[in-house]
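Hi there,

I know you've been waiting on this one. I reran it after we fixed the sequence typo, so this is the corrected version. Both the input and the resulting structure follow.
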Amino acid sequence: MTTQIVLVPGFWLGEWAWDEVARLLSEQGYAVDALTLPGQGVEDPDRSRVTPQDQADAIVAALDPAADRRVLVLHSGAAVPGTLVLDQRPELVDHVVWVDTAPSADGGAMDAEFAEEVLLLEDRYEDELAEGSMRDLTEEQLSTFRERAVPTPGLVVSTPVRLTNDARHDVPATVVCTSFPSEDFRSYAAQGVPFLRALPDYRALTYVDLPTGHWPMWSRPADLAAVVADAAG
């Protein structure tokens, strides 16, 4: 039985962000594919034109229809194209893992008011640091992050997603809660906080607490790999 795990990084990151998690999962016999999304590669010629749909198409292309089981792991901003995949091709995803993120709602965007061509890590770095997102990262990891981060396409940040297929809500999902506890995830979702308001529509949710910052693939790779392996079955 072949189980494929597709690892999708969030803003500023390429496939390299998953190196340790991918290694751990591969050693367990899973077919692992870590992605660098369109617009997030070092050599991408024009990031300003890349849309969430472009990134969703790349995820679909990476999912193996011949696999017996496919697990899609989405970190942070990858939730936007990832939700489009669930909406457009739910049959290709047997389980989705949301890593410190949540599915988009119809008409939602990460930041609809963002008007720049690209989003730079350096423009957000101090805020991320002050807000605790970098918690548990070593100085070496922080340095590597800043050196290797690439600009995120502005349209990926600002474009609202259009969702029409209720079948996306039936895809089993694991929500990995790192920056704040699962109790808060549930509470904020029930209150209709925009970032989480789509969660209650999903009919097969499991919450896992993994206390750390926003980048558990670096701060707690073994624990995150274990959660993903559990979702893979």
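Quick highlight: The longest helix spans residues 221-232.

Best,
R. S.
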